[in-house]
Design brief:
Layout: H1 3-9, E1 14-19, H2 29-35, E2 45-48, E3 54-59, E4 65-70, H3 76-87, E5 90-96, H4 102-114, E6 119-123, H5 144-155, E7 173-178, H6 189-201, E8 206-211, H7 215-227, E9 234-238, H8 244-254, H9 260-268, H10 272-293, E10 297-301, H11 306-316
Parallel strand pairs: 1-2, 1-10, 2-5, 5-6, 6-7, 7-8, 8-9, 9-10
Antiparallel strand pairs: 3-4
């Protein structure tokens, strides 16, 4: 079932999660250990992130360097299939621009359709660590909107091979990312909202936000969306702070603000165990306010740990 169908038929705020594929060499059991404790809250869909290939250079005999491709977290498509099989719950794979040509993207989408997957979160993805800025693959997409347009064309039965006759349309529900505090590459919030509007106008069906810790940021973001006639569901993404290190790293990594009240409470903590309690309680209060506001779904970034999300959800759902 499509995410938008789940949202439309729901009588109250839904619960959903995002999980990370395990590191290379780890079994899928780690995924099940993350999801199993959360199934009591009946997530209608589970997002699975995709991590693109990166490269390392190994020094060989003679002094030259050999470029070797690595992917630290493979398995997104397989994990989605396992989720559907084990939990009878819809899986939402993230499809990214980076690392794929248009033909490789088309092949991946065909595979997902054959697996019975109805939803895609379409994002550009980040630059790899060795690049100062995002660089698309040759014949790949440079922006999320281009990826969205390819999916929309396939939904209409238009494939890259123009000679295909009576090609079967796919039927993907398309989610996109939204940034209540602005995407870090956008020069200003107005410009960022214009890009978001273009992605919705191109055929996207719903928005999932970047994590935030100040609900007013989300409320303002939704208001801006509606003022620009972006009328699709806007799902808030949440994550509790669990260590002092995160309080320093998250703003740098995700280009978000930590509210003064939250930061003051974190700084008072003597141990990360204390920080975890502060972060979970803050996220509980965020969730309660957002649910009261009438959000369609509360989407939690588990980051591979079920317990924090389970504690929050037990107070909300």
């Amino acid at each position: 079932m499509k995410v938008t169908e789940h949202l439309k038929k729901a009588k109250s705020t839904l619960f959903s999660i995002e999980i990370l594929p395990p590191l290379r060499g780890k079994s899928i059991q780690s995924i099940f250990e993350c999801i199993d404790p959360l199934m009591e809250f009946k997530p209608p869909f589970i997002d699975v992130t995709y991590h693109r290939e990166e490269y390392i250079y190994k020094k060989k005999e003679g002094g030259y360097l050999e470029k070797i491709s690595i992917r630290k977290r493979p398995g997104t498509v397989g994990i989605c299939a396992a989720i559907i099989n084990r939990y009878k719950t819809d899986a939402v794979p993230h499809i990214i621009c980076g690392g794929f040509s248009k033909h490789e993207t088309e092949n991946a989408l065909i595979d997902l359709q054959f697996l019975g997957i109805d939803n895609i979160l379409a994002i550009r993805g980040d630059a790899i660590k060795s690049e100062a800025a995002f660089i698309p693959e040759p014949d790949g997409h440079g922006y999320a909107i281009d990826l969205i347009k390819q999916i929309v064309h396939m939904n209409k039965g238009k494939y890259l091979d123009d000679e295909l006759q009576d090609a079967t349309p796919v039927s993907f529900c398309i989610g996109v990312a939204g940034y209540p505090e602005k995407h870090f590459e956008a020069p200003n919030i107005k410009s960022d909202m214009k890009h978001l509007k273009a992605k919705i106008d191109a055929g996207s069906d719903y928005i999932v936000t970047q994590m935030f810790f100040d609900n007013q940021k989300y409320f303002d973001f939704v208001k801006k969306c509606r003022e620009m006639h972006i009328n699709v569901p806007v799902i808030p993404g949440l994550k509790p702070i669990t260590t002092k290190k995160q309080a320093a790293i998250l703003p740098k990594t995700f280009h978000i603000d930590i509210p003064e009240d939250l930061l003051e409470e974190v700084e008072k903590c003597k141990t990360d165990k204390d920080v975890r309690e502060v972060g979970i309680e803050w996220c509980i209060q965020q969730s309660r306010e957002l649910k009261k506001f009438g959000v369609p779904c509360l989407h939690y970034y588990t980051m591979g740990s079920a317990e924090n999300t389970r504690r929050i959800a037990s107070k909300i759902f």
